[in-house]
């Protein structure tokens, strides 16, 4: 008969944490930061269809790093919860705080009760009526939740990226300034021998929660509008496409379930 | 049957053009011989590219519309893409079929659905109109216009004489308000333009730019054109 070795609970939890951290650190990073007009999400993502950033509800956005199937699962649950609440009560009664708390419960339960923790880190962001009311919540694999002060980075080398954001972030930035800072932060790591890289607009997934927009405030910034914001000098003036609908394209075959 | 049980909403018209569709509804809700509401809104955006108007039991209709809006938005967020216009119409037909039991007991609701078809191949076929029956039957209207509700007979007769292919959105909006005027003229359950209280029909459009509601000033101007013309030639 196989012998069951004793492992202390501390050891089990440490192993799980390490496993989850390793999985998350392998992925490309995402930054979320507030600016004068709302909240900006910037993810390093080569796919135009498998999103790391998405809309949850009118004022609430979602960003994630780690395993795609796991955070997609969480995103679906969040959209379902938000839509159900908004339908049962009122659209104003759907809040980022409630959503973050539900995610914390789910992630916490998975971490302590299941064999394998989710290898994900997510951000729930809510745009408020004024910049002081913007909220960013960071949720980690073990179900802990933190209220972040205006900016956050997740994924591989998050500390170094957050360092760049911390030094320059300001709530009074315009969208262009905030995006430039986000790109600078993301590209500050991962080059040859720890040097900076250059990130092209095609490598970025960008979305905003626009305070001034009526109704659903989530908008993806794509194509010419994105190129113009990233490098205003060479791009021709691009108009912000109003009700944007993306033509669904077949997913590239190289995409694996685990985010790179 | 059961007309006094709960408020009823009445006439909705929709007209398709080469640029999209126009949908308009009067503002009256009735309960038997009483006016339950003078300013009810029966035409709403279902999502960024389609419109829904309701006739029949107001409470059931508004609930149906709300659920339909949530379903479309939910699908869009989960899948990352909008349903096709036909997909939306089919979903609405299923929802109406589920109300069949209540409809047989007198709480019937019939919507009119119209929208801008983002997948349309031919330029002139972007505006599409769908009508329904209480059993969940779905019928696309190829004639260019349709109306539902108690005043629909008069509204359709009005449009039959005045509708022609190749209208602009502005012309179609004018025509829709005129058709509602004709419906209100002969149907007691349909409200006409209320110049005293400044209550005018709700007129909405769905085009390549998305859905849009005409402002109160714009609908008032459309109604005043009709009123001025009818003052010259009231009819009997």
From TrEMBL, chain A:
User: Keyword Cytoplasm: yes or no?
Assistant: yes
Q: Report the superkingdom from the record.
A: Bacteria
Q: Describe the function of this protein.
A: Component of the proteasome core, a large protease complex with broad specificity involved in protein degradation.
Q: Which HAMAP family match?
A: Proteasome_A_B (MF_00289_B)
- Main localization is cytoplasm
Q: Known PROSITE patterns for this protein? A: PROTEASOME_ALPHA_2
Q: How the protein assembles, per its UniProt entry?
A: The 20S proteasome core is composed of 14 alpha and 14 beta subunits that assemble into four stacked heptameric rings, resulting in a barrel-shaped structure. The two inner rings, each composed of seven catalytic beta subunits, are sandwiched by two outer rings, each composed of seven alpha subunits. The catalytic chamber with the active sites is on the inside of the barrel. Has a gated structure, the ends of the cylinder being occluded by the N-termini of the alpha-subunits. Is capped by the proteasome-associated ATPase, ARC.
Q: Which UniProt keywords apply?
A: Cytoplasm, Proteasome
Region described as Disordered: spans on this chain:
231-260
- What subcellular locations does the record give? Cytoplasm
Under the heading InterPro entries, the entry gives: Ntn_hydrolases_N (IPR029055), Proteasome_alpha (IPR050115), Proteasome_alpha-type (IPR023332), Proteasome_asu_bac (IPR022296), Proteasome_sua/b (IPR001353)
Q: How is its activity regulated?
A: The formation of the proteasomal ATPase ARC-20S proteasome complex, likely via the docking of the C-termini of ARC into the intersubunit pockets in the alpha-rings, may trigger opening of the gate for substrate entry. Interconversion between the open-gate and close-gate conformations leads to a dynamic regulation of the 20S proteasome proteolysis activity.
Q: Name one Pfam family in it.
A: Proteasome
Ranges of compositional bias, category Low complexity = 231-245
Recorded GO cellular component terms are: cytoplasm; proteasome core complex, alpha-subunit complex
Q: What gene name does this entry carry?
A: psmA
Gene3D superfamilies reported for this sequence: Glutamine Phosphoribosylpyrophosphate, subunit 1, domain 1 (3.60.20.10)
The biological processes this protein is annotated with in GO are:
modification-dependent protein catabolic process; proteasomal protein catabolic process
What name goes with this protein?
Answer: Proteasome subunit alpha
The record's family statement is: Belongs to the peptidase T1A family.
Q: In which pathway does it act?
A: Protein degradation; proteasomal Pup-dependent pathway
> What GO molecular function annotations does the UniProt record carry, in alphabetical order?
threonine-type endopeptidase activity
